[in-house]
Amino acid sequence: MNPTPSKIALRGDLLDFSADPGFASPRAATGVRFRADSWLLIDDGRIAGVQAEAPGADYQRVDHRGKLVTPGFIDTHVHSPQLDVIASHGSALLEWLEAYTFPAESRFADEHVARDGAARFLDALLAHGTTAAVVFPTVHKASADTLFAAAQARGMRLVAGKCLMDRHAPDGLRDTLESSEADSRELIARWHGRDRLAYALTVRFAPTSSDAQLAMAGRLLGEVPGLYMQTHVAENEDEVRWVAQLFPDARSYLDVYERAGLLNERAVLAHGIWLDDADRARLAATGAQIAFCPSSNLFLGSGLFDWRAAAEAGVNVSMASDVGGGTSLSMLRTLADGYKVQALRGVKPSAWQLLHAATRGAARALGLAREIGSFDAGTLADLAVWDWARGPVATHRDALARDLHERVFAWLTLGDERNLVETRVAGVRRYQRH
Ligand SMILES: [Zn+2]
Predict the structure, then answer these.
(1) Residue 418 sits in the same domain as residue 381
(2) What is the CATH number of the domain that holds 52?
């Protein structure tokens, strides 16, 4: 990477959010901050301010006039080893795990495979404009170690942890109660709170952990300050029925986690499609968030997440690709799919609501709003620069947009990683289109 001067001024059309636009109509929404043709000032990797006038000569100028600049996207649920199985045909969740995912994850026991996979995965995130993520590696300690090391080398904000799975998984993909606790403690000591890294107790999902392992994870979560928890919940109806058989005393799938002490304000639960009002009330009360994974939910035929019910109950909702169940690391593709899933529920979220949930909303839900998700002064300069349009159809549509929302919505709906010009992490250019 190029050596980076401490003061950078980046010129472009700056879009971020100061508050949650919610389900308001595009024109009634508040919290949208759009500053056309302005200068984003970066000092020592942090946002120093935004201004309309050109800065002084002590700033190195980067001219992205006519391009859109957003905070780097935050993908709150994605599987690093599953680039190997993205776009695999023809099955729903439980068969998909058996047929594709578990065999791919088995290979990550090999440290060299894990190291190559971690680098490929994080470089791919950056090449899609994603600068922060909450990631599942595999059950193997090496898969988490190599992922953290690769994120550290790139200066990225990453939340991850080795998967806990001591039952209902093939040979080579199971840990034990003892090994899972020892490995988790070792990884926490090595990585949690180091640079921009945080550890997440990573329960794959309820069926692959024994009661004892769930309880161990809950104890650790209460013991070590600042730990995250990530898992899956209520993705697929067959899965929900299986969980009910495995945990007959639990009120619901979500309740399995709550009884183990696994819900707190740093808990990230993917999907949450088949929840009821009582579950949503518990998510809101504990501060746990749902990672909405629309492309995965469509691809695996899992169901249509009820975003409005979650929001009305006070549940934090962020956006996630869930690759490899999801079919693209692009958060633009993910947001466009999110719109379509909500449309099938009779709801039309604004571009503002969608973008907020992948930037400032996700940062707030993760307790990281002082670090990422906006252009607030003092946050780290994680950002992405985009072409408003690529190709004749999008360019034509962009030129016809009558207002800002129309323009941003067309960008979000028609765009993808091909629109990405560059990605910066803490001010340092980490991806550049050639
Ligand atoms: Zn997942």
Answers:
(1) yes
(2) 2.30.40.10
